[in-house]
Specification:
With 175 residues, the protein is mainly α. It folds into 2 domains: 108 residues; 67 residues. α4 crosses α5. The two termini are 36 Å apart. Bound molecules: protoporphyrin IX containing FE (2 copies). One protoporphyrin IX containing FE binds next to α2, α4, α5 and α7.
């Protein structure tokens, strides 16, 4: 864990020093590239949410006239749930780290853009932390059973996913 932390810290220092040594244009291209990468990774990570919602909604609301579609979605969900959720964990952690690096590298931009960006990153950090706690079944302060409800509330209620999306869109509007 410690090694990972130092590796990550070195990476951030490397990126920041790269920012100082490269020509201004090149450095800002790389920094902007990190933003696009963060967004791309978030979309990939979202595949799990889409497939899960499709399953839940089709099960509850699709009439039996569409039995074939229902069966297809159920089967697809059963087969791909595990790989998609693993992808959701890994890719979203990578997206959060990438967005943090992007934000640090471009922190001296216009204020509204920076604020909106950090609002988006803040919710990514909250989602990642709550996600990791659910995933790893940590016992933060309370027992897992009690904290799971609170953690799921933070992670799955769409509040922070909504704040993330809003922050991201406002941030893009200022670029
Ligand atoms: C942490 C705070 C953030 C800061 C300070 C920040 C800063 C910036 C700046 C200055 C630009 C414009 C670069 C340019 O036009 O040359 C930019 C573009 C961009 N940022 Fe951020 N950003 C932040 C967070 C985020 C987040 C959370 C995401 C997505 C998850 C993101 C994704 C992007 C994208 C996709 C672009 C446009 C890239 C393009 O035009 O090709 N940024 N950001
Ligand atoms: C940072 C961007 C993230 C966003 C926007 C996000 C969004 C979501 C959403 C909306 C759901 C609910 C799916 C549904 O049932 O409709 C979900 C579920 C889940 N996410 Fe994330 N997530 C993110 C990152 C992570 C990370 C980094 C992890 C773990 C390492 C994670 C772990 C989970 C788990 C375990 C569930 C299932 C929760 C349960 O059923 O109790 N998420 N995520």
């Amino acid at each position: 864990m410690r090694i990972h932390f130092y590796a990550y810290l070195s990476f951030v220092f490397f990126m920041v020093s790269l920012n100082h040594t490269l020509a201004a244009d090149e450095a800002s291209d790389i920094a902007t590239g990190f933003g696009s990468l963060a967004w791309g990774l978030t979309i990939v990570g979202f595949a799990y949410v889409v497939v899960r919602r499709a399953q839940v909604i089709s099960k509850s609301y699709l009439s039996d006239d569409y039995k074939e579609v229902k069966d297809f979605i159920r089967e697809f969900y059963r087969k791909f749930r595990q790989p998609l959720i693993t992808l959701h964990y890994i890719v979203n952690i990578a997206a959060t780290i990438t967005a943090i690096v992007h934000g640090i590298l471009l922190s001296s931009s216009e204020l509204p853009l920076v604020i909106a960006g950090w609002v988006a990153v803040g919710s990514m950090i909250l989602l990642s932390l709550s996600g990791i706690l659910i995933w790893a079944r940590f016992k933060p302060i309370w027992t897992y059973r009690e904290s799971r409800t609170a953690l799921r509330l933070v992670h799955r209620q769409w509040l922070f996913s909504g704040i993330f999306l809003l922050g991201f869109l406002v941030h893009l509007a200022f670029t």
